[in-house]
Prior knowledge:
0% of the residues lie in helices and 67% in strands. The chain is mainly β. It has one domain. A hairpin with a 6-residue loop joins strand 3 and strand 4.
Amino acid sequence: MSAETTLNITCHFCFNQIDVDLEIDQSFEGSDMEIYDCNICCNPNKLKYTVTHGSIINVHVSDGNE
């Protein structure tokens, strides 16, 4: 079963706040990486995050063009 989580992040390029929706399986633990395009400037943001016990505990946003 998956749970949807909305995170508010700062775009790596335009520094505006944007919301991203993550769908995380409840049994998942570990790290993952996804690319999200900013809905304001359209640039790609690389979102790395760590999940422990069903909660996101670490989020890092960087340049998704790498």
